[in-house]
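Supplementary notes for students who missed Thursday's class. We covered one full example, reproduced here. Read the sequence, then the structure, then the short commentary at the end.
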Amino acid sequence: MYSEAALALINGVPVIGVRFQDRKRALTEVRNLTKQVARCVRSGSQTMVRVGFKAGEDGCFTLELCGGSGKITVIPGVDELMLRRFQKAYNAKKMFVLTCFVDEGAGAPQSLVVSDGLGVVIYKPCRALQL
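Structure (token representation):
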């Protein structure tokens, strides 16, 4: 499956998601994510979404995103530094973007929000809006 999260700040907005080696798999997962959010969010309505972090035995955290009908997604492998950076940017911008990332070469993983425009915007106090 996957075991690592990735975080990027784009114009100060935190972009977080699962990191994949395979671009095709990442595209499939982000499309599934947007479908899952669409099931929880009715058109023209505001749906409250809960964002939480659970500490793991390995010292890493797991991000859990839950909507009215249950869990939307779980992102494992968030280390403490990533958690702090996410929280600081999320509190400052009052929003974040949920997407997937692809490892391409030796550089930083690329966000599918940047390359393909795929992701979900979550506004504080936790409202979901599909991109």
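Commentary. The CA atoms of residues 52 and 115 lie 27 Å apart. Strands lie at 5-10, 13-20, 50-55, 61-67, 70-78, 95-102, 110-111, 120-123, 127-130. If anything here is unclear, bring it to office hours.
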